[in-house]
Design brief:
The chain is mainly α. 78% of the residues lie in helices and 0% in strands. Helix 2 runs antiparallel to helix 3. The radius of gyration is 19 Å and the shape is elongated. The C terminus is likely disordered.
Amino acid sequence: QQAAAPPAADYEKVRRGGQYGFVAILLDLIGIAVTLVSRAAGMVVGLVALVLLLLALRDLSDALGEPRIFSYGVYALVVSLAGALVALVAAAGAVLTVGPAGLAGAALGALAAVLAATYVVVVVVGYLMNRIYDMLSERTAPLSARASEDFGRAARWYWIGVLLVVILVGVALVIVGQVYALMGFRELESVSPPAAGQGSQVI
């Protein structure tokens, strides 16, 4: 069943959601580059991007009549924060429970724990983002064919990239997915309700 276009009054929320989403994904892409220099700084930028994305998803969820778009975004934020906390606790615990002689082993153990926790978080958040982009693809189809197509491609490439994130090609595919999401949000910034007596506008 094809999704229906939102009421004319909700188009402002769609455009605002597109604006928030565009900035959020742009920050997320910047955060990937920042992570290459500083993992901590990259995490901060990524979390800021996720909060902005939540604002976008809240507006789009309300306007498009799909509450899971927002709730999955909340889950992604909670998992990200919990994963970061677990990684910090694991690293600190490994170092504090050994003496200087075992410091090298503790460092390796802490690194393994952090990497394992990070991968689990990336996969879970990746799955949630895949579902969000899928729902955006379906729900934006009556508003913009181009946005719907971009979100569909974002869902596919993002998920494949997440599964392969342990190798360099996975990161590249995640970036490809985010670029498609960026274009999808950009398209939503300019949607407008159809004129009286006309069907839904499809761009």
